[in-house]
Design brief:
8-stranded mixed sheet; two-stranded antiparallel sheet; 7 helices; 10 strands
C-alpha cells in the first residue's frame, strides 16, 4: 500500500532556543538523517512546515498548514489533505534515532490490518505505557474527525486517537526491535539535548 513519509517540522520551539531539526547529533543534522531514513523506505517524502525557506536545501516537497491552529494535528491534517497516497508515516523532526526496522514493522502491521474487513485508521506504538503519536501511521479516513476537532479548537493529537480506529503496537513488540526505545527520544529542551548526546 502506497504511503508518504512525512517529517513534522512545524514545531514552535518554545522551550529550546534552537531550530530542532538543525540540531546536530554525531555530526549530522537530525532533519537530514530523518530524510535519509524516510527516503530509503518510502518513494515519496514530504516535510510539514510553515517555514519552507529553512528546508529548501533538503530537496523534499513541503506542505504548509491549511488550518490556523498550530501543532502536529494540523500538520498531519494538511499533509493528508494534500498527498495522493491514502496514508502517511509521520515522524517528528526532533527524533534523532529513527529505527528503519521499526518503521518497516509498523508499515507491515498497517498493510496487514487493512487487507481484511476491519480497517485501521492509524498504527501507533506504545512505549512506557503511553501512545507515541509523533511516530505513527495515519490514513485519510481520519480527515473528517480531525477537521471537526480543529474547528472546535481541539489540538491534542493524543486525544484524537480516542475517536478513531487505532492499531496499537505493544511495548514488548517494540522492545524486540528497539530495546531502549531510542526511536521515541525527542529534543524539546536543552536537558533533552544533553541527555541525547550523552547516550
Amino acid at each position: 500500500m502506497a504511503m508518504t513519509g512525512t517529517i513534522l517540522a512545524g514545531g514552535e520551539n518554545r522551550r529550546i532556543p534552537l531550530l530542532k531539526g538543525y540540531i546536530e547529533i554525531n555530526g549530522k543534522r537530525i532533519i537530514d538523517r530523518n530524510i535519509g531514513v524516510m527516503k530509503s523506505l518510502f518513494e515519496k517524502v514530504v516535510i510539514s512546515t510553515n517555514t519552507p525557506e529553512l528546508y529548501f536545501y533538503c530537496g523534499a516537497p513541503m506542505i504548509g498548514d491549511i488550518a490556523p491552529q498550530k501543532g502536529p494535528l494540523t500538520g498531519i491534517f494538511s499533509v493528508l489533505t494534500n498527498v495522493e497516497d491514502n496514508a502517511i508515516f509521520v515522524a517528528a523532526c526532533d527524533m534523532p534515532f529513527l529505527n528503519e526496522r521499526l518503521i518497516k514493522y509498523m508499515v507491515d502491521k498497517y498493510n496487514n490490518s487493512n487487507s481484511g474487513a476491519n480497517k485501521q485508521d492509524a498504527v501507533i506504538p506504545v512505549y512506557e505505557g503511553n501512545p507515541q503519536p509523533l511516530l505513527g501511521i495515519y490514513s485519510k479516513n481520519i480527515l473528517s474527525v480531525v477537521e471537526e476537532r480543529l474547528n472546535k479548537g481541539l489540538r491534542k493529537l493524543k486525544d484524537m486517537l480516542t475517536e478513531i480506529s487505532v492499531l496499537y503496537i505493544k511495548e514488548e513488540e517494540i522492545k524486540q526491535i528497539d530495546p531502549e526505545g531510542r526511536s521515541f527520544l525527542n529534543i524539546n529542551t536543552i536537558e533533552d539535548y544533553e541527555r541525547v548526546i550523552s547516550h
